[in-house]
TrEMBL record:
Keywords: Carbohydrate metabolism, Glycosidase, Hydrolase. One of its GO terms (molecular function) is alpha-L-arabinofuranosidase activity. Belongs to the glycosyl hydrolase 51 family. Gene3D superfamilies: Glycosidases (3.20.20.80), Golgi alpha-mannosidase II (2.60.40.1180). This is non-reducing end alpha-L-arabinofuranosidase. SUPFAM superfamilies: (Trans)glycosidases, Glycosyl hydrolase domain. Homohexamer; trimer of dimers. It is an enzyme of class 3 (hydrolase). It catalyses: Hydrolysis of terminal non-reducing alpha-L-arabinofuranoside residues in alpha-L-arabinosides.
Length: 503
């Protein structure tokens, strides 16, 4: 199979917001406890945070981490997680039918973010609580001192405010599974009132209102329209979520879920435009895709626990998807979509970061390792920063269950002007044929290949485990060349590649 593409310096999509490579950590399963926090672990620091996990996170250069939920936040009292640990209450978490020790709260999370070099993105509880909780939490986190909540923060050991800019107005409020679920108008009013109160404290906050939990929700896309009609001028982002699944093991169909993602983004972007026009607003609202990942491998085994038949365990292993090589291709396609939609998607969070549907896995008292999907996420986060190129791609296509005209060769391109590099992320969705790709580099100085990484595996179901951590990992590619302003590279069947060109 042959494919070609044109990258022209003058044809760009947008500056990619670094925060599109964000992540998410929820008080769920072993994400926090035994994930980032395990005071008895041999690598734990003075705060009880695992050093091996922190290193894997640091290597990813994650720009922002959303916290503390997720469904968990809809019945969470943030005040339970402050003050002396031994005095913090154990609470029942209704979302995941577990017990919450509250040994990790805002102080511990903030310290961990500083350790790994990331920003916080905090969610307020608009399920069981509302405006009052949101304004108090904001005051605790961002006010310098001299008020009840800020002085309490100082008393609890943190003098400087954290100055968190990004705030989520609840989580998945369209979902009937949510504590305090609301209809769109009800939620829209509450979100607008909460946003108003938060902006009375600080106009410069960046606020995120809940969009749909997925593109199959019965209320989608009316939900977006109604919620935005109530909140448009008070918020900066609308949040979307999507999880990708392949229980039938139909790779070709599975991989067309990227087309469905693209349509989802397109539809919500059009809704944003419509509401903006209707309101004659000068303000812009963007998409914050703050939960995305493959999620299905663990669903069967979780049914027992999530049915509530196991009591209220603390930090049980939940949503522990073990990712395979096929998922590398899906995650590569998702990240390519975000790069191509960088004009409207400004923030995105892989869900989640550790143990719970995550690129990083841990064993209690044992190792931490990179799952298969760690690598495409790593490459995009490290090398996918700059300006997204509007590539003209000519590739054979196929029709799948989730979208038609899916290009077998999927490519995104990024121009990093500061570093004088072009980076291309390529996925071959063909299961049996090589793809010979020729990419014309127009308007750029003559270049040469400086890095070429390839991920292939004879077994789509191959995984990385505690005992075999390197079964699926990138290797240096060979044979990518730039001759006469044309980059040539061959993609083996079902493969992911990154090629970087110095210009
Ligand atoms: O990430 C797991 C869960 O998926 C989150 O708690 C929720 O927001 C979504 O349904």
């Amino acid at each position: 199979m042959k494919a070609s593409a044109v990258a022209n310096k003058e044809f760009t999509i947008a500056k990619i917001d670094d925060r599109v490579y964000g992540a998410f950590l929820e008080h769920l399963g072993r994400a926090i406890y035994e994930g980032i926090y395990e005071p008895d672990h041999p690598t734990a620091d003075e705060n009880g945070m695992r050093g091996d996990v922190a290193k894997l996170v640091k290597d990813l250069n994650v720009p922002v981490v959303r916290y503390p939920g997720g469904n968990f936040v809809s019945a969470y009292n943030w005040e339970d997680g402050i003050g002396p640990r031994e005095e913090r209450p154990v609470r029942l978490d209704l979302a995941w039918h577990t017990s919450e020790s509250n040994h990790v709260g805002i102080h511990e999370f903030a310290d961990w973010c500083a350790t790994v070099g990331t920003e916080m993105m905090l969610a307020v509880n608009l399920g069981s609580r509302g405006v009052d909780e949101a304004r108090n939490f904001l005051e605790y986190v961002n006010h310098p001192g001299g008020s009840y909540w800020s002085d309490l923060r100082i008393k609890n050991g943190r003098k400087e405010p954290w100055n968190v800019k990004l705030w989520c107005l609840g989580n998945e409020m369209d979902g009937p599974w949510q504590v305090g679920h609301k209809d769109a108008a009800e939620y829209g009013k509450l979100a607008a009132n909460t946003a108003r109160a938060m902006r009375m404290f600080d106009k410069s906050l960046e606020l995120i209102v809940c969009g749909s939990s997925n593109a199959d929700m019965p209320s989608y896309p009316d939900w977006e329209r109604i919620v935005l009609e109530h909140t448009y001028d008070h918020v900066d982002f609308i949040s979307l979520h999507m999880y990708f699944f392949n229980p039938e093991k139909e790779t070709a169909n599975f991989l067309t879920m990227a087309e469905k993602l693209d349509t989802y983004i397109e539809t919500v972007a059009a809704t944003i435009k419509q509401v903006k026009a209707k309101k004659r607003s000068k303000h812009d609202v963007y998409i914050c895709f703050d939960e995305w990942n493959v999620w299905y491998h663990s669903k069967e085994q979780d049914k027992k626990l999530l049915g509530g038949n196991s009591g209220w365990p603390h930090a049980p292993g939940l949503l522990e998807d073990v990712y395979n090589f096929e998922d590398v291709l899906m995650v590569g396609l998702i990240l390519n979509t975000f790069i191509r939609r960088s004009d409207v998607v400004k923030i995105a969070c892989i869900a989640q970061l550790v143990n719970v549907i995550a690129p990083i896995m841990t064993e209690k008292g044992g190792p931490a390792w990179a799952q298969t999907i760690y690598y495409p996420y790593y490459f995009a986060s490290i090398f996918g920063r700059g300006t997204a190129l509007d590539l003209k791609v000519d590739s054979p296509t196929y029709d799948g269950r989730y979208g038609d005209n899916a290009a077998y060769v999927d490519i995104s391109g990024v121009h990093d002007e500061e570093g004088s590099t072009l980076t291309f992320f390529l996925v071959n969705r063909h299961g049996t044929e090589n793809a010979d790709v020729e990419l014309s580099l127009q308007g750029f100085a003559t270049g040469s290949v400086i890095d070429h990484q390839v991920m292939t595996h004879p077994n789509l179901e191959a995984t990385n485990t505690a005992k075999n951590q390197d079964e699926v990992k990138p290797r240096k590619g060979e044979g990518a060349t730039v001759v006469d302003g044309k980059l040539s590279v061959t993609l083996p069947p079902y493969s992911y590649q990154m090629v970087r060109v110095k210009i």
